[in-house]
Amino acid sequence: MALWAKLNKLDSAYRKQVDDLYDGDNLPMDLRHYLASWIETQDWETASQDYDRAMVLFQVLMEELDIQHSRFVQEDDFLQQHNIRRHKHHFQRYQEHPCNLANVILWFMAKEKEILDNAELAEQVSQIQVHQNPMEIDSQRNVQRKVDILRNKVECMDHTVKCLEEQQDEFDFKFQTHAMEGQLSHTSMVKNTWTPDTSSTAEADKKMLQNLLNRLDFSRKNMLAGLGELLDVAKDVLDVLVNDELQGWQLRQQRACIGAPDDTSLEQLEKWFTAETTCLFQVRKFLKKLDELMGKMTYLNDPLIAQKPLLQTRVDDLLTSLIKSSFVVETQPSMPQGKGPLVLRTNVQFSVKTRILVKIPEMNHAMKVTVSMDKEAPQVKGYRRFNVLGTCSKALNMAESMNGGMVADFRHLTLKEQKSGGGGKGITDLSLSVTEEMHMIYFDTVFDLADFSVSLETWSLPVVIISNSSQQQSAWASVLWFNMLSENVKNQDGKQESYEACKISWAKFSKENVPDTIFTFWVWFDGILGMVKNHLENIWKDGSIMGFVSKGKEKSLLKKKQRGTFLLRFSESIKDGGITFSWVDYSPTGEPTVHSVQPFTKVDLNQIPFHEIIRNFQIQIPENVPESPLLYLYPNTPKDKAFEKYYTVKSGADSPYIKYIKTRLVFVSRENTLGPMSPASSDMANGEGFEPVSVPALDPLLCSWIDCNSTQIEENVDMEFNEIFIDPTLFLTT
User: Fold this and answer.
1) How confident is the model at residue 71 (pLDDT cuts 50, 70, 90)?
2) 553 contact partners, CB below 8 Å, separation of at least 6
3) Closest CA to 253 of 324, 325, 355, 331
4) How far apart are CA 523 and CA 480, in angstroms?
């Protein structure tokens, strides 16, 4: 199949690339279409180097245009007749330089082949790649399409500038020839300018030179218009990269810092930022070439004089905005042994990594990054100030990056508190605690390349600085609160804002004790997070744990179910986190009764995995015969079906331990200690109703730990703490 026919069968995204390729007049698309067969069968590469061969092809092209014109005359197609006449007039300029025409057509053929190859490769990759989120794929394709359009326009402009230079050289040569022959007066060449001198040149020469100048003026205007369109495309790409893609990455990074399993890689963004930066620097080279051409020759009403400075300002503004946005904190500040990032301790080393998304090899080791603290610190009485100690200046380089990015990896920084000074004018007293203070770490560098220089600054997410490990839990609460609720990372007092969407205040979240307890909601919730992460990950991910449900709701759910139906929920009364289960039984008269056991803590779960507790839990009825009251996981899943995939201890003929009888701990409750549960009753049954018993069994299961990437809770919180809706799975990996 012919190349042009294949291009017309591509999907819309690649046909759009073809459309963008032919948006100028160098080779009109309709002419490419009408002469497709002839164009594709000619040896344009040889013609680009052979004048005689190029002249033959030029003459044949003119004949082909005459044939097309005659066809449209017969078809009475006035519009196409006009277009063919215009195209023929356009190509007449190559009569003296037919090799240039061959080069033009050769370039277009190469770009067509590139588009086709990319389309075929993409089709092959799509058949083997892992499926991504359709919205993410569409977004990436949209950005890549815009970047490809920008690259094509830059390549076309490069060709246009070269043609303009050749055209000006042709005019200059003929002008100088006539001047040397005395056909032009000296006054016509003053200051590299030219105006026709009717008194000193023949009418024919005057007309010829005037025509050449008119063509040159037309080409300059077209080239300037093309540069304006190119910068419009560059502005569009910049807006998408900075306002959509980069901001999206920053939001994903903010969520990842508090445990969300979001992708925070920067490789794709780096490719896009680097591509646009390269294109804009190429435009600056075009503008320098225009300065050079204008220095050799200018004339009255030269469009370069008026328009070139405006274009220079536009491209420099775009470059400045792009490069400033490209300087980011790739890895947020964190301590090696910390609970999570963004909580730092004085006199303890922490690491942080910055990166510039413009990857230019000649900039390797050329940009020094310096670290500082709290440039825009709030004027709050008692707000602490810190000095950054360690190696506070490093060069951006590729050696410290696993993927070859331009990074400055600060691995051994520490913070030391400054001696406090007296308050001054404008200082307010906000009475923030140490674990509520939010601090910023700033990074500065200078980008200096090809006479273009711009100062860059970026900053970390707000960090909390503590002085001892006992403050870790409260500090982490501040980090969670800020990053869940604040979109402005420079607002270091996020907790003082009025968050209308919040169902719980900051004070109730972390400062005030839960009613009838001696701990805050956060302390309780953090205990639940630790328990899920270390002991309950798999069954939490499966959705087996209902978790956040009140005792009253629990009773209403179970009393409608068959005997032995049970559910798993988190205890509301244990500070460090506890989990319990309740089940429904029926009296001889058919009245439902809900029973519950004393919650299991991390101490219990360190001894026996929770699924083994559920598997072997028994109650002792009056006849001293143990039986299991747990039959169906709510709403109606048989217990073994719900948990058997976690059982590693086999029984019967499948047991690998046929020679020995081993022991294990199981939990047995006496039936007379289990009472009906009311909505107001405590989590706990009587203490004596919960005891470990040693019975013959196989080896206990050792629970393994891996980072949790859980799905979110599907139902809203329904418990005594029902003011808040928080998904603990967001924080389990930290």
Assistant:
1) confident
2) 718, 719
3) 331
4) 13
Size of the chain, expressed as the number of residues it contains: 734
Using the predicted structure, report yes or no on whether residue 458 has a pLDDT greater than 90.
yes
pLDDT in tens, 104-152: 898 888 888 888 887 877 776 555 444 455 666 778 888 999 999 999 9
Six token digits for residue 254 = 């903010």
pLDDT surpasses 70 at 580:
yes
pLDDT at 667: 62
Structural domains in the chain plus CATH codes? 3-266 (1.10.532.10), 326-501 (2.60.40.630), 521-731 (3.30.505.10)
pTM of the predicted structure, to 2 decimals: 0.69
Q: Which two tokens stand for residue 219?
A: 């080409």
pLDDT of residue 427: 54
| β-pair type (441-449, 662-670) | unpaired
> Which one, of 152, 142, 146, 457, lies nearest residue 323 by Cα?
457
The torsion of the CA quartet 571, 577, 579, 580, rounded to 10 degrees, works out to -40
Torsion 216-217-223-226 (CA) sign: negative
Cα dihedral 362/368/371/376 (nearest 10): -80
pLDDT, tens digit, 9 for 90 and up, residues 368-407 = 999 999 887 777 778 899 999 999 999 999 988 878 899 9
Q: Which residues contact 554 (CB under 8 A, 6 or more apart)?
A: 567, 569, 582, 594, 677
Q: What is the 3-state secondary structure (H, E, C) of 51-103?
A: HHHHHHHHHHHHHHHHHHHHHHHHCCCHHHHHHHHHHHHHHHHHCCCHHHHHH
Residue 71 to residue 464: CA distance in whole angstroms = 79
Residue 292: strand, helix, or coil: helix
Tell me if residue 437 falls in helix, strand or coil.
coil
Distance in angstroms (rounded) separating the CA atoms of residues 312 and 288: 9
